[in-house]
Amino acid sequence: MTGAPIKARDIRKCDICERGLMADRAFTFFRVTFERMAVDVQAVKGIVGMAHILGSEQLAAVMAPSDEVAVPIGPPDQMIVCDMCAMAHREPLFQLAEQAAQAAYVRRGRST
Ligand SMILES: [Zn+2]
Fold it and tell me: Separation of 32 CA from ligand 1 center, angstroms?
């Protein structure tokens, strides 16, 4: 599955180094989407309980009232990362996700 192309009006600089994406004559970069998820404990318990009764986790996943075991907790945030930063950056995922959320917040503020 591939994501949607980026239109010229939506392209921006690298969210980490803030340089143009082709600053190093590279023609590839990353569009990273962060989506924080939470386990739906009740749904998991329902599937586990049904699996216990039916004797099959696969059958329980189909027969359970809901097979959705995780839900997003907030909108997804995207980050544009140049190849140089993708190779050099070694930050924890939480820190990058926070940067993406802040960048999205700033972009939303500029567009309104
Ligand atoms: Zn960069």
Answer: 13
| Amino acid identity for residue 59 in this structure | L
Cα 20 to averaged position of ligand 1 atoms, centre (Å): 8
Cα–ligand 1 centroid distance for 102 (angstroms): 16
In order of 33, 36, 38, 39, the CA distances from 70 in angstroms are 17, 10, 5, 4
Q: Name the residue among 60, 70, 11, 12 with its Cα closest to residue 38.
A: 70
Q: Report pTM.
A: 0.67
pLDDT digits (tens, 9 = 90+) for 85-99: 888 877 777 888 888
- Containing 71, the helix (H) or strand (E) segment is strand 70-72
Instruction: Give the count of alpha carbons within 13 A of 83, CB side only.
Output: 8
